[in-house]
Amino acid sequence: MTNPIYIPCFAWSFLTKRNGGAVAVIGATKPLRVHLWVDKNGVYAGAGYLDVHFFKVYSEGVSVSQMFTQAQIDYINYVCKDYFTLEEFIFLDDPTLSVGGYP
Based on the structure, what is the number of domains in the chain? Predict the structure, then answer.
């Protein structure tokens, strides 16, 4: 390819924004699957399920990696062993970040 097109990662742009931006980002690397298994009663599977369960663990003092891991555990236990979805749902930045900061 003589003229490759560079398209920056949307999530990474949140992390690298100067004078602001995010400290961590979660999300699906293949967003087409995000909207599957959703209806008016909620999200039943896919990356949307992982998004919701990531924030269900949210509380002061818990690490972001604990939130991410618990969402994955919930997915395996209550949805299915859909390893493709688990692999495509990623966490970018420091997994030791603590919700609510540090004393």
Answer: 1
